[in-house]
Amino acid sequence: MSNSKLIDRRNRGFSLIELLIVLAILLIVATLAVPNYLAARARANEASAASSVRAIITAENLYRNTFSVFADLPSLGSEYLTDSLLAAGTKSGYVFSSTPGSSPSLEFAVDATPVLSIGPSATGQRNYYGDETAVIRFNLTGGADSTSPPIQ
Q1: Which SS3 state, helix, strand or coil, does residue 135 take?
Q2: What pTM, to 2 d.p., does this model score?
Q3: Cβ(89)–Cβ(120) under 8 Å?
Q4: In whole angstroms, what is the distance from residue 32 CA to residue 42 CA?
């Protein structure tokens, strides 16, 4: 065999075995990284939901100072007291609702529920609740209410 044929054979590129080994390594890394990424995303969604509940409580108090009653989310959005995503009721994998109580000048309730609370693609596990007391509460097993433990 001449030297030119040896050089051509060496410069042809990667063999199939080499490519399969690299692909296997990438799949192993992805298998380890994806669950951690999904868990981190769910925790970030939960932090965003708690922050959004706090923002709604603040907006409700501002609305009450102006109009002497508490309001629902669309009303808070129309007065530019919340961002448009929050006023629409869905943000960061959570569904939000804010409703005035039976005495709208004295009470309201805010609920935040994850869109998907179980499985690998869960958007969060905690349900959040807030009211005129400005205490944010959570529950891991169902809807949160005024008897749920406060967040720390």
Answers
A1: coil
A2: 0.80
A3: no
A4: 17
